[in-house]
Amino acid sequence: MTAVADVDPLLEVRKLRTSFFTSDGVVHAVDNVSFSVRRGEAVALVGESGCGKSVTAMSIMRLVAVPGKITAGEVRFKGRDLVPLPEKQMRAVRGNDIAMVFQEPMTSLNPVFKIGAQVAEAIRIHRKVSKKEAWKLAGEMLDLVSIPDPVKRLDDYPHQLSGGMRQRVMIAMALSCDPELLIADEPTTALDVTIQAQIMELLASLQKRLGLAVLLITHDLGVVAEFCERVIVMYTGRVVEEAPVLDLFERPGHPYTRGLLKSLPSVVKEESAKRLPTIAGMVPSLTALPQGCKFNPRCPDVMEICYGREPALMQVGPAQTARCYLHGDAADPERS
Questions:
Q1: 128-149 tens-digit pLDDT
Q2: With 0-12 CB in 10 A as exposed, 13-18 as middle and 19+ as buried, what is 253?
Q3: Which ranges constitute the DSSP H helices of 105-212?
Q4: If you compute the radius of gyration of the chain from its CA atoms, what whole number of angstroms results?
Q5: Which phi and psi (to 5°) does residue 289 adopt?
Q6: Distance CA 105, CA 187 (A)
Q7: CB-hemisphere CA count at 13 Å for 84?
Q8: Between residues 302 and 8, which one has the greater pLDDT?
Q9: Please, are residues 219 and 186 in contact by the beta-carbon 8 Å criterion?
Q10: Which of 8, 91, 163, 321 has its Cβ near the most Cβ atoms within 10 Å?
């Protein structure tokens, strides 16, 4: 169940399950996940490390490596299910229709090739243009992402650029073939605070200018508040809450979401002097999940019912759902 019923969403993920076949058994890193992204919308996928948000992004792109595999569900882009597509057709979707920016640009950029050559190659993979035209377009893309002296920078190697500039190059490469959906996986994690703000401002301006839909993968709710319209909260591979940003911040419907919000640093002097609250315990291993609600070992509001069957996603507002027995006694039929 999703919080917003889209008539014609650009991306629609339906009951997606991505499993890893390990020596300890099969683990579902993404388990029965459903959500949608509308055209031109910025949606955040949030949660602690290990909650399944990055695997969800890689599943959408069909880039999950062995021993991982999509074992159930659909990933519909403009109505077409990407899961059964042959790899050749999926390669045409990547870059042209859906592009992705990763969290550490130095692992994505080749250190021995010039920036211009790498951006131009990304263009030529999807467009039938000459090397000269691709190089010219590469300069225009660097200009689009506000890199100073873009033509000069084409001759630089990745190590000659700052972390923020390298991330701008990655965004330029992602946008070089005019995709309709950009997936940004923790795009500011390795950057200092001032550069983080610049990158998010760049993404926001590009989204409005180009009419991009953006799926932002992050653990930073401060970034979400500034940039996104809607939030999907994940825990142990499941969606536990979905809501418009304002509703989520004003009335979080799941104890896990409340814990994430309470752990945000405050700029108010009296509040900042206090020790930051934390969520008790640790995210459980996917090979040893608790019975019932997966958050019950860490939940301050745990009840007897929470140890039985897993709760369903329940409507808690006009456009808000939460997977919590605080809002009723409905159990998830998928886990009966």
A1: 899 999 999 999 999 999 999 9
A2: buried
A3: 105-108, 115-126, 131-144, 150-153, 163-175, 193-210
A4: 21
A5: -75, 145
A6: 9
A7: 5
A8: 302
A9: yes
A10: 321
